[in-house]
């Protein structure tokens, strides 16, 4: 069974200087810079699919990441990711086609941190995620097996970055 890579990305810093509803909150100026920095890291990975929340700040994070060098032809925007619990995100991952080797999931806290610490085998990096998974936090997990069998404690957290622009 081929190795899979799951990259989990928390959206960049959003602005609180807005009257918009939470779903429509945009990135702050720092968030816009950080999103481009995230793209430089993501450019190192051949992304097969992006699963992204429909929140404005997530969409702007992906757009900035593309400006920074990230590329993917298959970007799927989902309202489910905005409201999801870790188990619901895992169900989405289970449905990925086996031709997908590298998936990027972009969403929100605390769900993403909980998903990462659930999937990852115990490690110092997993402990860091458990303590804090900040905006623009990017975690790279690897897993050997089919997406549909990805489960708690089965992945290895290989990399944790907090790109800043």
Q: Can you describe this structure in just a few lines?
A:
The chain has 165 residues and is an alpha/beta fold. 35% of the residues lie in helices and 22% in strands.
Describe the structure.
The chain is α/β, with parallel strands linked by helices. The chain has one domain: Phosphoglycerate mutase-like (Rossmann fold), CATH 3.40.50.1240. Helix content is 35%, strand content 22%. The protein is built from six helices and six strands, in the order E-H-E-H-E-H-H-E-H-H-E-E. It has helices at 29-42, 56-67, 79-83, 86-94, 111-119, 124-131; strands at 3-10, 49-53, 75-78, 102-107, 138-144, 156-161. Strands 3-2-4-1-5-6 form a six-stranded mixed sheet, sandwiched between helices. Helix 1 packs across helix 2, helix 4 crosses helix 5 and helix 5 packs antiparallel against helix 6. The mean pLDDT is 96.
User: Strand portion, in percent?
Assistant: 15-25%
In the CATH hierarchy, what is the superfamily? Phosphoglycerate mutase-like
What is the name of the CATH class? Alpha Beta
Strand order of the largest sheet: 3-2-4-1-5-6
CATH architecture: 3-Layer(aba) Sandwich
In total, the number of domains comes to 1
And the CATH topology?
Rossmann fold
- Number of E strands: 6
As a whole number of angstroms, the C-alpha radius of gyration is: 15 Å
What structural class should be given to the helix and strand makeup? alpha/beta
Q: What is the number of helical segments per DSSP (H or I, 4+ residues)?
A: 6
Give the fraction of residues assigned to helices. Answer: 25-40%
Question: H/E series, N to C?
Answer: EHEHEHHEHHEE
**Global morphology:** globular
Q: Give the termini distance in whole angstroms.
A: 37 Å
Any low-confidence stretches, pLDDT <50, length ≥5?
A: none
Q: Mean pLDDT, as a whole number?
A: 96
